[in-house]
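Incident review: delayed structure delivery

Summary: a single-chain prediction request sat in the queue longer than the usual turnaround. Root cause was a stuck worker, restarted by the on-call engineer. No data loss occurred. The affected request and its eventual output are reproduced below so the record is complete for anyone auditing the incident later.

Affected input:
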Amino acid sequence: MIKRILNIPNLLFVLIFASFLLPSKYAVEMRSGLKSPLIFAIVLILIEVLFHFNYSKAKKRRAALDITSFVYAFLLIWEFFVSRLNLLPYIFIPAPENVFYVFLSDWDTILIGFVNSMILILIGMVSALFVATLLGTFVGWNERLTKAVYPVSKAISTVPALIYTPYIVLIMPTFRVASFCVIFLSIFWGAFMGSINNTAFVEKKIINSARILNLSTPTILFKVIIPFNMPRLINALPIQLATALMTLTVAEMLGADSGMGYYVRFSLNFANYTKAIAGIIFIGLVVTLLNTGIDIAKKHLIKWNY
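Output delivered after worker restart:
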């Protein structure tokens, strides 16, 4: 119990709240002033709750201490040198109170952008993974096709999706079609190559066991090969999700009128760095939550591993 209370994260947590009581040069010298620290305080409390939740698990205790200490140290430095002393360039580095207050003042715009982005992400990502898994499994099953297709796919997949994103946005009839294509292509080639590899190098004893049972080829592919490779497909999802979000954000910054990337671009166009930083933080939070959701889904849906 003593260790749960007397530790570095809790000390930093108290110091951040204590710094709210210090006089603020930012509030005195800045025209915009300092917003209410209420939202910032709520964020700190949520981090503290999450820290204690993970601290109660022995396997995650050290990671919880280190990660929370780093986050609190960063927020304390930000709060002290900007909100209290106003020592850093205020135009580019706004006070944390003002940044987190954006989530209250612009919650409706942020929520609409989040929903629009998630719809595009889910449609493009699910479609790409479905097509890539089916085609990759079929190609990997046939040795001749593997030797013919894999080198070409490897060459194409080395081209980052960000390179051709502006071109796709330009030539497609609507932004939604362009976004779908960008997300689909950014995920498809990596997932396609992974499916080929997973199928081509499946242990022979598994295939031989299936053939001894006189199973048909479609049955082997869909009920043996794909389920056997499912853990690898799920393990690759965080990287593919990050890639999809990155390419979608760039696409939204180029030609969208809504979305998380559009919110950041719109804020930057008007030099509103407070909202831009809030948008960047929100995107990072979304990625973290989605990756956490993938880990939870993996534990509940994929009971087997190897």
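Verification: The longest helix spans residues 107-141.
Action items: add queue-age alerting; document worker restart procedure.
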